[in-house]
Amino acid sequence: MTATQIASRPLVEIAQLTRQAARQLAVLSTADKDGAIEAIALALESSAADIIAANLADCQAAAAAGIPNLFITG
User: Fold this and answer.
1) Phi, psi of 29 (to 5 degrees)
2) How far apart are CA 74 and CA 69, in angstroms?
3) Residue 10 DSSP code
4) Every domain of the chain and the residues it spans
5) Whole-prediction pTM value?
6) Is 25 left (phi over 0), alpha (psi -120 to 50) or beta?
7) Cα torsion at 6, 52, 44, 20 (round to 10°)?
8) What pLDDT digit, counting tens, does each position of 41-66 carry?
9) Rg of the chain taking only CA atoms, in angstroms
10) How far is CA 37 from CA 32, 34, 43, 46, in A?
11) At what angle do helices 48-64 and 30-46 cross, to 10 degrees?
12) Element holding 69 (H helix, E strand)
């Protein structure tokens, strides 16, 4: 599930999905948890340019919408 798919869901549903994921992670071995964290880190590193570009676009859209700079970082 992508971040966009998650963000489009109601907050209560996101909380339920998070709780379910926490239960699934709780029973994993330390090695499995470490492997999952490493996979997440690698995915973030390989997507860094896209993440930064999307953040910049969000900041520019916020500025164009008149949101005060106090609430915009980027």
Assistant:
1) -70, 165
2) 10
3) -
4) 3-71
5) 0.62
6) alpha
7) -20
8) 999 999 999 999 998 998 889 889 98
9) 17
10) 9, 5, 10, 14
11) 60
12) none
